[in-house]
Write a structure and sequence with these properties.
The chain has 187 residues and is mainly beta. It is 5% helix and 27% strand.
C-alpha cells in the first residue's frame, strides 16, 4: 500500500492515526485521538471527532460527521450527508461534555444511505443496510434492511461479501419490495 494522502485543505490534528493507502480529500478535519484504518476514503468536508474509530476499507462520502463515541468497523459505507449524533439531550447552555455521550457502533460491511441519521447509543449489525433518509433510533440486526422515520425493517438480506453481488431479498413483504422497486432497486 501507499502512504496516506491528506489534501492540503484538510486538517489532521496531532495524535491522529491514519492507515496506509487512506485518502482524505478537501476540507476535512480529523481531531486528535481519532484513528482511521488502511485503505479508507473520506470525501469532501468530512469531520471525524476526537477518539472516533474508523476501521479498514471504510468509505465515507461528502459532508459526513463521525462524532466522538462512534466506531465504524471494517468496510462500512457512509453515504453523502449521513450523520451520527453522540448526545441524546444536547443543551448549549448546560453542556455535559463526554459525560453525556453514548457509544454507537456500526459493524463490518454495513451500509448507511444518504442523509440517514443515526441517533447515538445504537448498534448497527454486520452487513445491515440503512435506507437513504432513515432515522435510526434503535439497534439494527445483522443483515437487516431498515427504512423510514423512525427506521423500521425486519427484512433480512442475504448478503455476500464479494463485491458486485446483488442482494437477495427472499420473502420480502410486498410493501417493502414495491418501495425498493420504485427506488430503482432490483429484488
Amino acid at each position: 500500500m501507499t502512504a496516506p494522502y491528506v489534501h492540503e485543505s484538510s486538517y489532521a490534528d496531532e495524535g491522529v492515526a491514519i492507515g496506509e493507502g487512506t485518502r482524505i480529500w478537501h476540507f476535512c478535519h480529523i481531531q486528535s485521538g481519532a484513528s482511521i484504518g488502511r485503505g479508507c476514503s473520506l470525501g469532501q468536508n468530512v469531520y471525524v471527532g476526537a477518539n472516533a474509530k474508523i476501521g479498514d476499507g471504510v468509505k465515507i462520502q461528502n459532508n459526513v460527521s463521525v462524532y466522538e463515541g462512534v466506531e465504524l468497523e471494517n468496510h462500512v459505507f457512509c453515504g453523502p450527508s449521513c450523520v451520527f449524533t453522540n448526545d441524546l439531550t444536547p443543551r448549549a447552555k448546560y453542556p455535559k461534555g463526554s459525560d453525556g455521550r453514548k457509544r454507537t457502533i456500526v459493524r463490518e460491511g454495513a451500509s448507511i444511505g444518504a442523509n440517514a441519521t443515526i441517533v447515538c447509543g445504537v448498534e448497527i449489525g454486520a452487513w445491515a443496510m440503512i435506507a437513504a433518509g432513515a432515522v435510526v433510533v434503535k439497534d439494527v440486526l445483522a443483515h437487516e434492511l431498515v427504512m423510514g422515520v423512525p427506521a423500521t425493517g425486519g427484512v433480512g438480506l442475504s448478503v455476500r461479501r464479494e463485491a458486485g453481488r446483488r442482494l437477495a431479498l427472499p420473502g420480502m413483504r410486498k410493501s417493502v419490495s414495491a418501495t425498493l422497486q420504485r427506488a430503482g432497486a432490483r429484488p
